[in-house]
Amino acid sequence: MSIIVFAEQRGGALRKITFEVISEGKRLAAAAGDSLKVLLAGDNVSGLAEELKKFGPDEIAVANSDQLADYTTESYAGVLADYIKQENPSLVLLGHSAIGKDLAPRVAARLGAGLVSDCIKINVDGGDFSFVHPIYAGKAIATYKVNSAVKMATLRPNVFPIEEAEGAASVVDFAPEIAASRTKVKEVIQQAGDRPELTEADIICSGGRGLGGPDGFGLIEELADTLGAAVGSSRAAVDAGWRDHQAQVGQTGKVVSPNLYIACGISGAIQHLAGMGSSKCIVGINKDPEANIFNVADYGIEGDLYKVVPALIEKLKEVNG
Ligand SMILES: Cc1cc2nc3c(=O)[nH]c(=O)nc-3n(C[C@H](O)[C@H](O)[C@H](O)COP(=O)(O)OP(=O)(O)OC[C@H]3O[C@@H](n4cnc5c(N)ncnc54)[C@H](O)[C@@H]3O)c2cc1C
Predict the structure, then answer these.
(1) Distance between Cα 258 and ligand 1 center (Å)
(2) Distance of alpha carbon 141 from alpha carbon 144, whole angstroms
(3) Exposure of 103 by Cβ count < 10 A (0-12 exposed, 13-18 middle, 19+ buried)?
(4) All domains in the chain, ordered by first residue
(5) Backbone phi, psi, residue 200, to 5°
(6) Helix (H, G, I), strand (E, B) or coil at 11
(7) How many Å apart are CA 3 and CA 87, to the nearest integer?
(8) Is 321 helix (H, G, I), strand (E, B) or coil?
(9) What is the pLDDT of residues 50-60, one digit of tens each?
(10) What kind and span of H or E run contains 18?
(11) Can you tell me the distance from the alpha carbon of 22 to that of 239, in angstroms, rounded to the nearest whole number?
(12) Which of 150, 204, 232, 292 is the most exposed place for a label (fewest CB within 10 A)?
């Protein structure tokens, strides 16, 4: 049997999540005695296969077509579903990214495959897989078994380590018939700035209602720039119009798992924790010693963020020279 990984690329560049998913696919394939195959789809993307080889897949199938130049659910779902039908794998893995969240359910529904989304761990038990996924806003962890022959899962970004592996992947062409899509991408508007994307960032500095107004995010941005971090926000700050919804972390925002999450003026409501509770190191800065963020923080700083954050920036600049 085989395990298939969908390689996510945008604008001809592979996403970091792709390396995480392939690394986990390789680990699972070794444990289950399966081969690892990667589907790379896009327009003129053959060159990316070299980068994928570093992670030790057995085969890389490349679907090149001008109809795949921009991501559209219909055309990509068709290509991935056709590849799965051809290969009949035991498991299909995608990133739990904007594209993965859109693509996986569509393909699963087409194929009647069971899908577990936003997995933080996958176990191999005697040739079968079980899927670990946080539920109830992260308050409980559920482990699922999937009954369908083809099983699908999306993996939470920044949770699975990236590991290069030995392997001599063969690169093959995959040229399915791509039905004309009813959707056309007319324009792609990139967000300005060179900060890392929130779900892929190693470090996130987030601001909440405690900032007192939109201008407070200037300080959070300064801290983020000192650390090369992304800027996040609580929903209260988004609802107040201080920050775009793109920045919202939480149950109804983005789920992030950075190495370092600095929460400034955020109380730590359960819906916020649902989005950042799996961060490896959490720093809470809050003037209320009873704030819930201190119950999950690895480091808590009790104090006025307008005093603490500038001092932190100064110290970081001093340390960084
Ligand atoms: C269905 C549902 C979905 C939701 N989804 C989300 C979600 O996705 N993401 C999310 O974040 N929330 C979500 N919420 C809202 C959530 O319940 C909270 O209301 C929200 O997270 C609170 O945001 P906050 O921590 O910024 O504000 P508050 O709870 O008001 O906390 C502000 C904190 O700032 C501190 N503070 C004030 N001034 C300072 C200062 N000068 N220095 C230091 N600290 C200071 C205060 O002590 C306080 O702890 C959701 C709610 C519901 C019902």
Answers:
(1) 20
(2) 10
(3) buried
(4) 2-173 (3.40.50.620), 198-320 (3.40.50.1220)
(5) -105, -5
(6) coil
(7) 9
(8) coil
(9) 999 999 999 99
(10) helix 16-32
(11) 37
(12) 292
Q: Which of 47, 10, 4, 46 is nearest to 22 (CA)?
A: 4
Q: How far apart are CA 82 and CA 178, in angstroms?
A: 10
Q: How far is the CA of 284 from the centre of ligand 1 (A)?
A: 12
Tens-digit pLDDT profile for residues 91-148: 999 999 999 999 999 999 999 999 999 999 999 988 799 999 999 878 899 999 999 9
The residues lining ligand 1, judged by C-beta closer than 6 Å to any ligand atom, are: 208-210, 234-237, 248-253, 265-267, 269, 271-272, 275, 285-288, 291, 304-306
> In ligand 1, which atom is closest to the CA atom of 291?
49
Alpha helices in 209-269 (DSSP H): 217-227, 235-239
Nearest to 153 by CA among 82, 196, 228, 93: 93
Query: Which DSSP string corresponds to 116-167?
Result: EEEESEEEEETTEEEEEEEETTTTEEEEEE--SSSEEEEE-TTTSPP-----
Nearest to 42 by CA among 174, 168, 183: 174
**Cα 168 from chain centre:** 27
- Residue 274's CB is within 10 A of a number of other CB atoms, namely 21
Q: How far is the CA of 131 from the centre of ligand 1 (A)?
A: 31
Tokens of 315: 């110290």
